[in-house]
Structure prediction request, 697 residues.
Amino acid sequence: MNSREAILGRIQEALRVPAAPPSEHNHGHDGGSGRHGPLSGTQGMQAWLPLVPSGADGQLALFQKNCTMLRTELHVVSGQEEARQTLAAVRDAHHWTRAAVHRNELLDAVVPSLQLEMLYTEQRPDAAALETCSVGITACDALVAQTGSILLTARSAGGRSLSVLPPHHVVVARGDQLVPDLPAAFDLLKSRYGFRYPSFTTLITGPSRTGDIERILVLGAHGPKNLTIVLMR
Amino acid sequence: MSSTFAAKFKTRATQLTADLGHRAKIRSALKSYETARDERKAQFQDWQAARSAAAATKWEAINHLDTYLVSFVDQLTARGTKVFWANNGKEACDYVVALAKEKGARSLIKSKSMTSEEIHLNEALRQAGYEVVESDLGEYIVQLRGEAPYHLVFPAMHLTRTEISDLFEQKLHSPPTDSPEELTMIARRQMRMNYLRADIGISGANFGIAETGMISITENEGNARLTTAVPKVHVALMGIEKILPKLSDLALFLPLLATAGAGQQVTCYNSLIGGPRQADEVDGPEEFHVILLDNQRTHLLADAEQRDTLHCIRCGACLNVCPIFRNVGGHTYGTTYQGPIGSVLTPHLRGLTDWNHLSYASSLCGACTETCPVKINLHHHLLHNRRNAVTQKPDLMERLAMRAFAFLTHHPGILNSLARLSRPLMPWVSRAGPLLPPPIKGWLISRDLPPVAARSFRDYWRAR
Prediction:
């Protein structure tokens, strides 16, 4: 008998004795539903998770507030022209010398004007080359107002390394990519990728951080120390 | 009967409870966590309903574990992942060692995984001649010290910046500093080379999504992202109980884990990995292996009363609120998993005979059960383990004592006479405390016997 059959066999044997559903042996609410089955999709979660305003302006304000708290640098700009100017200003402030980037309609419109040496991930650079770039510039799948997060995948953001190896990560996004909350973000993943999911998806919430020394917050533990979002309304 | 593990626990606990400096360190390390956690909890519109929903979701997953595991594995393999089912820790370690051999690996890097601590994977690899570097800052620090993690989420919380600076100076020859930021940058620079050099990246998994065949990794530093992005081979080690039915369950579990575990709304990086690099992707490992570990989990699953222990998402919240953990510290337990969850879990993973003493490492205050984000009945399970230990192996002395007690309470005349006779002896008992036989000795070692009244209540009542 192989180990798969052995483990599954032990599980089936163990489950022959039913366990009491949660509400019966650990007093507490049941969310009012009285059901113990799996939650159907993300329905209902909005009622418990942190509140998100319903209008687009309120959601943008919440996203801004979260970015400030997380120390994400957020620039809300009116369009491509202002995005180019903003990126140039960030380039100068951080003394970028070399940028890593991927092919994307949105990026193609605003990145070339930076006039930096560019490394495209489509050329399959090795990790050591990516590591020497001052910045990784990517698109994303969505921004999440509730948590101040960026949702991206290997497909939408030029692979796995681009957004984590360089010391600065810049995300260029459109205003309509802002979704209200985490349930909406996961719903979006499902509708966009169905069962052809990329091998990698990540939800990025602020620059890399650690509290492992005396629980004191330090930014830039292993991932990017700086995270900038340029949001075009 | 006390095992050697029990004796060790007692010795270390006695030392550390008296170490006021150690207690102060733990208190101060947990203070900012407590504030942040409470703020984050308050942001939830209904934290209690969220806990109940999480408990219901984990109940569903664990009580249909076979179905969900099969779906998880089918989805993973469809995207080119190699799945290995390991009955125990040894099989899991052997698999990783064989893989390292097959790939001719020279260097391995690992992101934080308590499951790998449980099966002593680093030790197994080292014995086979492979060096593994821990990439999480806290884990790296305890690895350099040759220690086990102190806390399942905050591995180095027992160390001050001075101690860490001394350690880095000694092991990495870095200049001394009292800045946590500078210390973090020393580790960052050191680790960068390791990511680029490593042939194999090893990670754990916080959740396994049955619906889509993905593992979910929660972290703050980015070390898990680098560990799973750069090396050519990625191996993820996951306990079979980490399953969640649906991708969308993460919309609840990610904030729940971060709030309870670290006082964050969500952690910095929550990554989903569902396979090796796909044809249309520019980078990522060429091979992705998932090791599904049983290692006594099915044994715990068979205990319907304590099955909800498998709901645990390893957030560490129960450690942080536990008065015992806060006094005796993480290393005292001598286990992979510390605190209340460790006290419940370890007897199931490593045997009740050797580990039942942990069932008493509790004041039964219930703070753990109340804080648990998936509502595990922790303090009641400690009582269940005590009961099971007695059923499994009755303690003759204890049984005799209980018989005697039952006899006396059924015969008030004899009880009263004995009480009257022993009354004049009480001041002597109090004074001779530590010299008396157990259990009187143990009770009196840290307590004073209050002075006994000159006459009993019964005598007083009769004479009234």
User: Anything to note?
Assistant: Chain B has a mean pLDDT of 95. Chain B touches chain A through 115 residues (CB under 8 Å). The longest helix of chain B spans residues 20-43.
